[in-house]
Write a structure and sequence with these properties.
5 helices; Alpha-Beta Plaits; four-stranded antiparallel β-sheet
Length: about 180
């Protein structure tokens, strides 16, 4: 079995990718959005983190989370978010995909892939590249023509805050470094 290692950094900012089980496309459904939003709110009550950027796509999400000063445990947050959605919304989401035998033995849900991808942000250039990757992702996947067209994105908040120009990514293809999102 692989030996997974995560980099735990107090007050770290993490790029996260979480994928649904067998890439089932339920995340953008009304129930999926409600369940994920509620799960994040509940987890943040006990294990605070700030959400710097977020994109919700039908079968995965990407985000930038920053942890508090004396905390380095991103894993517990993702585990609790996934558990909450599975426990409270699994029947309403209604995914009809058989779980693997390994997943059954572990008592897992058929909503989420077992693991998540994380990358600890190293510097400002790394942070900016991941912001851009997140917000350009629905265009990359052919879900819309410009980042502003995708409704489930923090780009709308960031445009209002002046972080992004109102027309960012509309007319020009955004160049994302090849190593971003594939770390």
């Amino acid at each position: 079995m692989p030996n997974y290692r995560r980099l735990y950094v107090f007050q770290g900012t993490y790029f996260i990718t979480q994928v649904t089980y067998k890439r089932q496309q339920w995340l953008c459904s009304e129930t999926g959005r409600k369940g994920l939003r509620e799960a994040i709110e509940k987890v943040r009550e006990k294990y605070f983190f700030s959400i710097d950027a977020f994109i919700l796509l039908p079968d995965h999400f990407h985000c930038l989370f920053t942890l508090p000063e004396n905390d380095d445990n991103i894993s517990v947050r993702l585990k609790l978010i996934k558990t909450y959605v599975s426990k409270h919304y699994k029947n309403d989401i209604g995914v009809d995909v058989k779980l693997s035998r390994s997943g059954e033995r572990r008592g897992e849900s058929n909503l989420w892939q077992r693991r998540f991808w994380e990358h600890c942000i190293r510097n400002e250039q790394d942070l900016i590249a991941h912001y851009d990757y997140i917000h350009y992702n629905p265009v990359k996947h052919g879900l819309c023509n410009s980042p502003q067209d995708w409704p489930y994105s923090s780009i709308h908040r960031l445009i209002k805050q002046g972080v992004y120009a109102a027309d960012w990514g509309k007319n020009d293809k955004i160049e994302i470094p090849e190593n971003i999102g594939k770390e």
